[in-house]
Queue: 2 jobs
Job 1
Amino acid sequence: MFGQRRSKRNIFALATLAAGALAVTALPAQAFNVHTTDGVTPTTIKLGITIPLTGSAAPGYSKIPAAMIAYFNYVNDNGGVNGRKIQLVVKDDAYLPTLAVAKTNELILKDKVFAVIGALGTANHIAVSKSVNLGRRGVPDLFLNTGFSGFADAKKYPTTFSLFPSYVMEAKIMGQYLKDKFPGKKLGLIYQADDFGTDALAGFKQAGTNFAVKVSYASGSQSAQTAAGWVSKLKAAGAEVVVMFGVTTASGAALATSAALGYKAQWILGSVGGDATTLKAVGVPAVVLTGAIGASFLPAPTDTSDPYVAFFQGINTKYNGGAVFDNNVLVAMNTAMMTVQALRAAGANPTQKGLVAALESKGSTFASAGLAPLNYAKGVHVGYNGYWFGSYNSSGELKPIGGDYSVYTTDSGAGAIAKSTYVRPALPANGLPTN
Amino acid sequence: MRNLFGHSSRRLKAAIAFPVIGVVLFIISNRVDELRVYQGANVAVYVVAIISIILLTGYSGQISLGHGALMAVGAYAAVLSQVYWHLPIILTFVVAVLAAAGFGAILGTAAGRLTGPYLAGTTLALAVGLPSLANQFGFLGGEQGLNYDVGLPPTWLGADFTQYKWFFWISALAALMVTWLSFNLLGSHYGRNWRALRSNPTAAALMGIHVGRSKVLAFTVSSGLAGLSGALLAMTISLVTPSAFPTSLSFSIVTGAVLAGVTLLTGSIVGAVVLVAIPEITGALATHLGGSEKVTSNLPGLLTSVLLIVAVLLFPNGPQAIMKRTRKSSH
């Protein structure tokens, strides 16, 4: 009896609730919006970023927005971009694709940002590109922090511009480096069994690298136990030089386990798993890292003789509360400086279409800390295309071998691998772009 | 006689109410902005997920902390049937339901002897472990996942018809159908068996209810619905990847079910709206409060937990029960 009466009421409660819940949200009803001047007022330009501030990927990455804001505040204190102050709306995506989509939707549909900058996480950004569809909406998606080669497709992702060289490029360059520096040595490779690793294998194939042994691991399976398995395979094959093309937790496990098992090889770490600060954070002692070879396209964050690094360190002290200056902070401030140049290049009355066009036409001339050239052009949306190699010293700093940064460049296809003669533009006066 | 009459009048009202709600939702979806439409689609996804918990916990008395994993099973089944068999989109949802229900039947049979915390622990292990299995098999796409593309809205809906409105229509229709079917199921003898089972398994068995079979059936139906909500969730992000189904998802939908009042089907909307609103509310709160990054980024988790505790302490049968109580006392 009671149950039935309850059910009857429930039906109407359901109807009322359904209508009520959505009707409340119906208040700011509005017409279809054409995104031409979103986020730009006579005095401000609003940009957005989603980034892991919480969750497993937060250590390291969570420092990025504050470092970007620090540089933007410095520019704002010096007149902004064409009189407009830059605002950065920061949203936490916890490194989850569901939240990355939800938060990017908020950025675009609610905060109405002019552009999205510095997004990271390959799976997250595939979801964002597909579901939010930044390309169809015409929202610029600048300086993406991933080397996944899929985003290089400018037809599929017309407004997306990556910053990092692709993993294919990195593997090709590494292959060439192995050929030059370790001829005749027995080579080993550890790689991740997904698109990340597939890109790496494609690159090594292009470079004609022959590994005596290849060990793959499933993403998420890395641990001291599984690393012991990798090491025994490498040992059995007698690998003298081992390339570690995986995430930091995997390279950390490989280094620590091989040290514990007394396996001595020359380690070469890919850029993804080679950030010394993060390696330390996951518990790799500096002594284990010493002598390993790493790759980067930026100057070492500890290299104060580099004018860009010295300038950004100054900004970090004055505007970022003196946070630990590592690769994440350097990447963030460099991205912010490139963003300012992109906004300037878009003209006095920037539009989203104009911003994309400006990056295609002028992006390759931007001043940036990168030691490899920027390659933006019509239909080319991948930024840096090269790496230099260094070895980690006893305090975990990556120092260029032989003292100077010699950068190798290539493409993601069958193009040659060459020693770069690129000289980056000088740091603009006071670090304020005038392009 | 009266019972019979009550029964058919209930059905009649439902038969009127559901189309009415559908029309209301349709009108609303044309009036709100795109972000609200997208959030509406998420609400509908959570409604289905929460109902799957309500059927299981609220009616058959079994606890699952692993429904996120069952959602993943549904989502992967749907995307695989699309990628490898090229099934039309409507059939991929059917595949999601069947695969998750099949998986749930096996799980329910295995877990049939477990109750309370043991069952919770077993299902929790599933939530932690199962989604990352996708990383072990290449055909599942690893961390990059597989694109799940329900396609653009049909052209006859017009050029202004956005992708998100299409997502909303699909998920809202699914949620309405699921609510209606569950409503009927719970009114049938299966529903009565489950309620008897939850109140007192021994008494239920004495009355001739096959306890084991009823439990497994509840688990199977609930899993099927979880599978459907998983496929719908994947649709809203156009991607199936292990990280879309974190352990916290299982906790979220249980929280949603508790907020809904675990025995009230209609409460699922309250639970779902709260789940979708929390990240936005805390985001706004964080902006107003300012404060350090550490504080603001932990606000969503804090708010969810506080809500859960408050709900359990103050209105264990859901906010609607409070409304009813006050109404009754005013009579």
Note: Chain A touches chain B through 61 residues (CB under 8 Å).
Job 2
Amino acid sequence: MSRPYGLFRVGFPYVKTIGMRRVTNQSMDVAIGKDGTVYILGRAGAISRLSWEDDNLENVCGPGKDDGKFVWPVAMVIDREENLWVTDESLNRITVVNTDGEFVRKWGEPGEENGQLNGPSGIAFDSEENVYIADALNHRIQKFTNDGEFMFSWGSPGNSEGEFNMPWGITVDELGDVYVADWRNDRIQKFNARGEFISTLGRSGSSKGEFSRPAGVEVDSDGDVYVADTGNNRVQQFSAEGRYVDQFIGDATMSKQSVAYLMSNARVLRLREMTDLEPLKRLRNPRSIRFDDQGRMYIPDFGSFRVQVYKKEVIPLERGEIDVPLRAPTLLTV
Amino acid sequence: MSENDLSLFAHLLRRAGFGARRDELEAYAAKGYEAVVEELLHPELRPPIEEDILHRYNGWDQGSGMAPAWLYRMINTERPLEEKVALFWHHVFATGTAKAEHPHTNMAQIEMFRHDGFSDMKTILVGLSRDPAMIHWLDNNENHKDEPNENYGRELLELFSMGVGHYTETDIKMAGRAFTGWTFEQPIPLYTTGLYPVNFEYNEDDHDDSVKTFLGQEGRFNGEDIIDIIVNQPATAAFISRHMYNFFVADEPQVPSWDTEPPQDPNAIEMLSKAYFDSDGEIRPMLRVLFNSDFFKEARFKKVKNPAELVTGVIKLVGTDRWPTPGFARYASATTVMGQMLMNPPTVEGWHTGSEWINGGTLNERVNFAVNQVADATKPGVGEIVDHLASQDGHVSPGQFVDTCLDLVGSLVVSAATRDGLMEYANAAGEVSFGTEAEREESTAHVVRMLQLIVATREYQFA
């Protein structure tokens, strides 16, 4: 799939909210199945399964050290076979379960040698479903085959190019390039598939293009880059060239489950009538971003126990439909 | 550097912190006592706890995670007195989560103690009076102009500033009326998106602005005016001084008896009260006087460790948990079974301290916790003790063995009977040697057993 020459960004409206406290507590990450089922990874170990309509399809997995259980799960991806791959930074292992939560396999052991893990965080597939792991406390990225065989790694502690300070989120674009949320360095680093440094995005701060402990990173099919800017309670959007485009601070409405719950709680309804509701819309410490094949962006809203969904509306442009890039800004009125 | 000096620093760090390992004590001792006191009194000179690390790993700002998060801070802070002062004010201004079940507000209150705990009494009491956790705990949100509720006014005088016997029932009612309208904004409810921060709100329309007579003064007093009057009372200076003495120096009788039971060291209370008035009620100068005083230096092991001190001291001794772990909640559970559920005191009066920390059940929990923690020789702190002994020319006599272990757990002073008991084991073990791998393995087992015996002693229950 090739990227469009240019984009006409029509809009990026908020679509809906799914999940609620007690169902999708401390939502760390999200994956979307082929049938539209939304899988939400909770910090306490459960994977919540919700329909697009926000029906609760029952939680699976749960806390524990046994196979198929999690202690401190961090990130989750879904493979072509609809298996869910989950990193666990306490157990130092990768666990694969099917969408019913049944254990498939696991791999990983603690340590700092090649193939060993110390606080595995982000996880991403390349086009062949080889696996990249952000090995946070070893301050490196490791690549494994789909069977968990070590391939290679790169990175060391530090803040220079190609060095990391507790990397967290990781993703691979359709060109095979790798993006890492270099969490404690407040930046995104981009590498080619061999782990060779390409570029850096962002720096510490709260202005446009600045980050406060970015946890998640994602790239959509247009090449736009999204960063879960956790400490700034927002998601930032950048063009493929790294230009700041927009930010998402949260527009949540009540999920279907929340409405049903509150309709049977007169006291809570009264309290809501006594308070300022504006903060309810906002993201709180988002830790990931994922897209489905319809261009819908899912943001696990960690601090508010839910997922907010937006829809990217964009018209791809061919050469001639949009001017060539300008070298300088202009005040020309057009 | 004499061992006695290290013993003094161990004492200081038990009281002004949560204990310290041998290497830390040596580093402190190299700076000199008064310099260390100044360093402790100025936590801003040291780096704060790494909040981003806490947040990344725990989401500890929700619900049951607050006590583990605080214990993590106590164990890992580089600003031990800041955390100890927060614990001190938590003892004095005991506020619980059980009533509201809104832990955000309780955590915010502790953070206020961290931030303002060294400042002056007016700042602290105004902050306390504006604190949503306290307002709800003592019903000041239900204290209305046309329907006053004197609960906060009463406890402000009785438990938070002056103590029983220094005010009248009328003063209580007037204080209550002065705090009408001091409330908080209705927060977003827990369901369905979790807790949100809560803000103080002053509702002028609900404030009783009438003339009030309080402690002999008359005016249209608001809450801050009441606090202005309170902080200038000698009774306030004496009451806070006695709290400070009880928490940092030596166990006093329980607070409700203070109007009838005189302090065990009136001169100390007088010194601290003088420091209070010399500095317009500032806490830092009072603590400076306290830690540099002879009465403090002579008060070694005159205070029963509260459960938070015991648990954090043991964990610091064994050198584990320097990084967030999923199991940190077990330490909160440990203090709870020892009688101290942090941020959930039994009443507004707080915990009964001193010998009342100890009963058949809690003593068992305290001893078992400590014994189990030192049982693992792979823990860094235990390993350091083994290494220290091994560095003594490879052979350690039974007497050296006992004395070195007592020294390394914090310059612990024990009775002759206790030492005899420890010597009995040491003599049975014979000379402890580390020359060969087999000797080291056997001796390590003896060290673990000796440490277990030491932390199970009566003396180890004292700070």
Note: DSSP finds 23 helices and six strands in chain B.
